[in-house]
Structure formats: C-alpha cells, structure tokens
Write a structure and sequence with these properties.
It is built from 13 helices and 21 strands. It is of the alpha/beta class. It has three domains: about 120 residues, Rossmann fold (3-Layer(aba) Sandwich); about 230 residues, tm_1862 like domain (pyruvate-formate lyase- activating enzyme, Alpha-Beta Horseshoe); about 60 residues, Beta Barrel (OB fold (Dihydrolipoamide Acetyltransferase, E2P)), CATH 2.40.50. The strands form six sheets. Strands 2-1-3-4-5-6 form a six-stranded parallel beta sheet, with helices on both faces. Helix 4 links the parallel strand 5 and strand 6. The radius of gyration is 22 Å and the shape is globular. The N terminus is likely disordered. It binds S-adenosyl-L-homocysteine, iron/sulfur cluster and FE3-S4 cluster. Iron/sulfur cluster binds next to helix 6.
Amino acid sequence: MSDSKHGEAKKLFIKTYGCQMNVYDSERMVEAMVADGYVTTERAEDADMVLINTCHIREKASEKLYSDLGRLRPLKAAKPDLKIGVAGCVAQAEGGEIMRRMPLVDLVVGPQSYHRLPEMARSGLKSIDTEFPTEDKFSLLPKRKAARGPSAFLTVQEGCDKFCAFCVVPYTRGAEVSRPVTRIITEARDLVERGVRDITLLGQNVNAYHAQATGLAGLIRALAKIDGLERIRYTTSHPNDMEDDLIAAHGDEPKLMPYLHLPVQSGSDRILKAMNRKHTAQQFLRVIERIRAARPDILLSSDFIVGFPGESDADFEQTMDLVRSVGFGMAYSFKYSSRPGTPAAEKPEIDAALADARLQALQGLLSAQQREVQHAMVGREVRVLYDKAGRMPGQMVGKSDHLHAVHVTDPDGKPGDLVRVRILASSANSLAGARISGI
Ligand code: SAH
Ligand code: SF4
Ligand code: F3S
C-alpha cells in the first residue's frame, strides 16, 4: 500500500484542537492517510503534509489556526512541496476565507468530508470541501486494524439541532445525524478485537441518538453484550434528552460507568432563557435527582459559561448556588466568547474584568468540589483500567470507573489490565493507590 517503490513513505503531521469528536476524527483521518501510503510523524519539520484539525467554539480556539499557519510559513517557503491542510470546525465556518487569506493552505476539508481527504491530498490542485453530504462518512473511511490502547472514542451521533444562542456547533457540524446501530456495533467489535475494553460514545448531543428505532439506552444495552468490552461511557449529553430509559440504564447496566457529563451552562433561569437552553435550573436539578436515585455514587460533571450578555451579579450568584447544591466531581467553565453568526453575538457584551472575576470565583468553587470528591475516594477500593506505564518505575496509570486518573504502584501491571486498587492519596488532578489483586 505504501509508495516505498518510489522512495520513502510520505509523512503526515497532524495537530488536533477542540473536543473529543475532533480527536476521533483525527484518528480516522490518520487511518485514511496511512491506507493511502503515509506514515505519521511527531515533527512538522519532517512532514510532507501538515493537517490542522481545528475548533471554532471560542475565539481563542479559532485564533490558534492562524498562529499555527504563521509558524508554518517559513517551513512552506523552504519546502514548497509541503502540503498544508485545514480540517475541522474552523474549516467549515471560514473555509473560503482561509483559502483567500492564507495562500499557503492547499486544502480545506470540513468535518463531513473526511472520506475525501486522501483524494484531495493526491490531487496537485488547491481544493476545498465543506459540503454536508448525506452518506455516513465513517463507513467510507478505511476500517481500523492495528492494535491499540485499552480506551477508545466512537462517534455515534454528529451535529446539533439545539441552537443555543452562543454556540457555533449547529453551524459547523450541521443537523443531528445518528449512525446506524449495526455499524456502531461492528465498529465496537473491531475495537475490542484490537484490545479496547473501554469505549466512550461520542456525539455533540449524544443522548439525542436515535437510529433503527433505538435510542442511546438501547444502543448502550446492545453494546454491553459484547464480550471483552468492560466499560461504556457517553458524552456530551443535553439535560432535555435524559430520557427515562437512559436514566434507568445508569441503575441497571453494570457496564455503563458511574460518570456523567451534563452541561448546564448557568444557574439563572433568565440567562438560560436568553441562551435558548429550553430548560430551567429547577428542571436540571430534577434530572440530577433522578439520575442520583438510579445511581447514587455517580460522579457528575458539567460545563458553565460566565459573562453571557446581560448576566448580572444576581444571575451569577444563582450559578454559584446551583453548583453548591449539586456538588460536581469535576466541571469545565468558560468565559463567554462572542461568535460570529450566533444570535448572542448581536447583544452587548458585559465588562471583561467582571467576567474574569466571576470565572475565577466559579473555578475556585468547582476545584474545591473536585478536591472534596477526590478526597472522599481515599481509603476506598476502586477498579482501574491501566492505560500505560507511569513516569515512575513500577507504576501504572489508568482510569477508575468514576474517570479519575489513578497512579498505581504495580511492577507487574500492563496496559489493558483491569485491577482493583486501594486509593491511598489524592493530589490536584489525580489519585494514587496500590493494587489489591487482578479481577
Ligand atoms: N454539545 C455540548 C458541548 C458543546 S461545546 C453541549 O451541549 O453542551 C462545549 C462547551 O463549550 C459548551 O458546553 C459551553 O459551555 C462552551 N461554549 C460553547 N460556546 C461557547 C461560547 N461562545 N463562549 C464560551 N463558551 C462556549
Ligand atoms: Fe452547542 Fe447547545 Fe448544541 Fe451543545 S446543545 S452543541 S451548546 S448548540
Ligand atoms: Fe470545537 Fe467543533 Fe468540537 S467547534 S468543540 S471541534 S464540535
């Protein structure tokens, strides 16, 4: 398959920004390019092709593309054959403009057109493809083969129909589309054959998954039947799509892990309404209550935006109150970033220093909660799936059922082992423990 007949295989350097769906997409693009004769390299300087998989979610994320391209300019000048490609959500949102403003870019490919990447790379012409075709691009990409680590992402749903007032995703990823159950099961089986034991199902609105008369709960139950697959997770979900059967699955499907990322964004009903979230703080709290009734030890995570246009001190305090009343095991918080083309971008922004101060206060509270939840694990016995060897000799690193990173003293451990561990200590972002026995 490689073009070694004509000399060395071409080298691909890929850089990935953004969410897990971009990580998954990058893996699939690498596989497509490898099937077309490329090998990967860790150094842009050695590459015949540089591919930047971009994120458009906040202004800072988008800007990274332009600074990366600036840094690539001397490389391209020294090596005119170097192909530079831009993929992902900035490609989708600003593809035409990138091509016009950045002559060093050879190709622009939107998230729905990755199956065309090898062909675009082969053609000597500048090309752009940001269509939203109806076929399942993943089924057109080559099948995955090589052995791999014990945890994997698997995209089951793409796109978003929710149109939160601040968010570009419905524009960059298009309408909600679910992949067929049968294809997902085949892909999961292939992953398990390649050594995977822990799969995270991905979607911009993963719990809106619906295909072949099956919702996400049905998909999870079908996947749980695969021998050798030990853990199932999913992300990111929307509070309004937490259906009864999905909540029930948290209580009775042992392979579904006790961790849930459920973004709420704000604790103020006024702001939630302005954000077009279509739920109140109370409705969110009620969903949490029902999930905890089904799975009392579930670790909850969320996303928050501070400084949304019009957010007052009182609104922000309601966000702090919501955080206090839930108690999150971890969470992400962001300062509002005005995005071109979104309804919120029409509204006047609040004072940046005020937004910074709120972000700091919220992050202080969230990290205190994270520390508390982690600390409560000390002394407990947890299951850890080893990802890789740790930095210290005789140490392994892996994830607990609750998705805590755990460093384990275990000279005999190897990646893929699922073991019982006694937690002995908690530090900023991880736990440490000792192995009890194999399972
Ligand atoms: N589909 C998911 C995640 C979307 S993007 C969801 O429904 O929540 C991930 C997070 O980025 C969002 O949850 C939100 O907290 C944040 N985000 C999205 N747009 C943003 C913006 N314009 N400014 C700041 N944060 C934003
Ligand atoms: Fe964006 Fe809202 Fe859709 Fe999430 S649900 S991707 S925040 S529009
Ligand atoms: Fe970013 Fe696109 Fe994901 S905007 S967060 S890479 S869906």
